[in-house]
Design a protein that fits this description.
Structural class: alpha/beta
Helix content: 25-40%
Low-confidence stretches: none
Number of strands: 10
Distance between the termini: 48 Å
Number of helices: 10
Strand order of the largest sheet: 6-7-8-3-9-10
CATH topology of one domain: Rossmann fold
CATH class of one domain: Alpha Beta
Largest sheet: 6 strands, mixed
Length: 256
């Protein structure tokens, strides 16, 4: 028997940052990249998406902001369905930081790059300036605001690319191989920034130690299906699971 008190509680339940239900997709050449993926990420969670090349990770990410449309199933972000009618708001809510920051930085100065996204979504004036200032401060790049991104190091450009997304105040932050080509210092600096964020995060990576450092939960995707979903440390401790899905920890790496 349901009590009257239960109804208001259900009505006020917060929608997850990401809800993917039975998502399937085939490319025009007939290759089926996703075969019924279901994934739920609650607000504030940090989740690593792991899997070998060709597993379907990129295809899944391209559904999150409506670049690809499902052949079957649904995707919603913060309770808003990913549909053609909602694309502008969905693309604000899903902040994707690309693997190569040069794909994301194209303005003459760092500050102009960070302002571009929110300005495109209609933010102007004092609010736009405040968002740029806050995003640059968050990633530790305020002093470089008037420099050209071309004159920054790889790690600095990666942090500026992150700031361009944070300035849009996304519902979920999607990171595509964030540690690629970073030296140890830049890798650590980026990790410190990411750990300091109060944000929902989906990190697509082959870097298993980075997944362990940043994401308490991991999902392994292979051949278009979720094969396991659980605590990152437990998954990485399962050598047979990693072997089956062509994942490998660096030689000599130990799980303490």
């Amino acid at each position: 028997m349901t009590t009257d008190a239960a109804a208001p509680a259900a009505a006020t339940r917060v929608a997850p940052s990401l809800a993917v239900e039975e998502l399937a997709y085939s490319y025009p050449d007939g290759h089926q990249a996703l075969r019924g993926v279901t994934l739920r990420i609650e607000r504030g969670e940090r989740v690593a998406l792991l899997g070998p090349n060709g597993a379907g990770k990129t295809t899944l990410v391209l559904h999150l902001n409506g670049i690809l449309a499902p052949g079957h199933g649904t995707v919603s972000v913060g309770g808003l369905p990913v549909t053609r009618q909602n694309l502008q708001e969905i693309r604000r809510r899903v902040g994707i930081v690309f693997q190569d920051p040069d794909d994301q930085l194209f303005m003459p100065t760092v500050a102009e790059d960070v302002a571009f996204g929110p300005a495109n979504f209609g933010v102007t004036g004092a609010e736009l300036a405040a968002r740029v200032d806050a995003a640059l401060a968050t990633v530790g790049m305020s002093e470089h605001r008037d420099r050209s991104p071309l004159h920054l190091s790889g790690g600095q450009r990666r942090r500026v690319a992150l700031a361009t997304v944070l300035a849009c105040e996304p519902e979920i932050l999607v990171l595509d191989e964030p540690s690629t080509n970073l030296d140890p210092v830049a890798r650590r600096e980026l990790a410190e920034v990411l750990l300091g964020l109060d944000a929902t995060m989906l990190m697509v990576t082959h870097d298993l130690p980075y997944a362990l450092q940043l994401c308490p939960r991991s999902v392994i995707l292979d051949d278009g299906v979720v094969v396991t979903d659980g605590p990152t440390r437990e998954l990485l401790a399962d050598a047979e699971l990693l072997r089956q899905h062509r994942l490998e920890l660096p030689y000599g790496f130990r799980l303490d």
